[in-house]
Amino acid sequence: MSAVTTPADVHRLLGGRLHAWRHHLHRHPETAFAEHATADRLATTLQDLGYAVARGVGGTGLVASLTRGDADDDRPSRTVGLRADMDALPIQEVEGREHGSTNPGTMHACGHDGHMTMALGAAAVLAEEGGFTGTVRLVLQPAEEPGRGAQAMVDDGLLQRFPIDVLYGLHNLPGVPAGHLHVRPGGIMASEDNFTITVHGRGGHAAPPEAVVDPLVAGAEIVLALQTVVARNVDPVHPAVVSCTGFETDGARNAIPSTVRITGDTRSFDPQVQVLLEERIRGIATGVAAAHGARAEVTYTHEFAPTVNDPEVTARAVAAALAVLGPDRVVADCDPVMPSEDFGVLARHVPACFSLLGNGTEPGRGGTPLHSSDYDLNDEILPAGVAFLVQAVRAELPEP
C-alpha cells in the first residue's frame, strides 16, 4: 500500500475547498433526475482537476475518469470506481442556516451533498498527488432516493462503456461518532419492497352493520395479523421488517366503507426472505378478507435491492480505513442497518463495498436523523471520508 494520506493531510491539502464545495451543493439541491445544475457544477470541477467527464449517463449521471501510469507498462491495468449520489429530497429545510437551501421545498436531507464533496475531495487528492497506476472513475449517480438512478445508469451501458474492476461507496450515518467508519462483509443495507392491500367489502349505513360486509374490520385484522409474519414465519437469524404505514377508507362518519387501502413496506437482506414475506402478506390478506366475506387484492413491488458487500473487497476497505483512521475509529463487522440504498444494484454487477461513516451523535452536530428538515451533514467528517476513499483507491492500484 502506498503512503498514507490522513484526514489531517486532506485538511492541509484541500483547505477550504471541501467546505466551499459542500455548502454550494447544499444551497442548490435538486431532486431525482433533475440534477442538471448539480451535474454541471461537478463536471466543471472535475474537468478542472484533469478528469475526462462523460455526461448524461442514465439521465443526469456523470462518469469522470483519470488514468495514471506508463502505457507501455506490462502490468495489467485496473480500474477503481468511487460512487456518490447527487439527488436531494422534496423537504422544506428549516430556516436560519447560512448555507441553507435556496430551492423552496427541496433540501439535501440525506447528506448527498457531503457524499459528492468527499468524492470531489478524493478526486482532487488523487489528481494532485497521484500515488497510483491505473484508472480511477467517479460514478456520480442521479435518483438514489427513489431507487431508480443506479439501474438507469446500468441500463445506459455504464459498465460496458466505463468498465470498473471494483467499486466503493460511502454514506454518512447519524448516531455514530463523527469520522468513525462502520462496514461489514455481506448484507449491510436492506432491500425495500412495497405492498398495497385493497380490501373490497359492501359498504352501507353505519346503523345496520349486519347489512354490510365491513372491509374496515377486515383491514384492521389484516394489519394486526401481518405483525406475526416476522415473529412466526421468518427465521430469527435473518433480519426482516414488515411495516404498515397507511390505512385509508372511502367511508364517512355515518357510513361503513366499501373499500380499505393498506400500504406498507418490508425490509430484508436475503432473497428467500423477500419471497417468504411476499407469500405470507398475500396469504394473510386474502385469507383474513375471505373470513370476513370480503375480498383482498395485493400489489407487491421490489423497490431496492439489498446492498451486499463483497468479502474480499470489504477486507481491503477495512485495511484502508485502519491505515487512515486508526483502530479506534473502525468497526469491521458492524450490525446491518435496515434502510435501503440502490448501490445494491451496482454491487450485483461489480465486486463492491459500501461503508457507513459516522456523522456524529449530538443533535445539531451530526446526530439529527436523516430525512429530517433540520438535518445537516457534519463538515467535520469530510476529511475522514476523503482520506478513506483515497486510501481505498491506492490499496487497489499499484504504486507508480
TrEMBL record:
<dbReference type="Pfam" id="PF07687">
    <property type="entry name" value="M20_dimer"/>
</dbReference>
<feature type="domain" description="Peptidase M20 dimerisation">
    <location>
        <begin position="195"/>
        <end position="274"/>
    </location>
</feature>
<dbReference type="Pfam" id="PF01546">
    <property type="entry name" value="Peptidase_M20"/>
</dbReference>
<dbReference type="InterPro" id="IPR002933">
    <property type="entry name" value="Peptidase_M20"/>
</dbReference>
<dbReference type="InterPro" id="IPR036264">
    <property type="entry name" value="Bact_exopeptidase_dim_dom"/>
</dbReference>
<protein>
    <submittedName>
        <fullName>Amidohydrolase</fullName>
    </submittedName>
</protein>
<dbReference type="InterPro" id="IPR017439">
    <property type="entry name" value="Amidohydrolase"/>
</dbReference>
<dbReference type="InterPro" id="IPR011650">
    <property type="entry name" value="Peptidase_M20_dimer"/>
</dbReference>
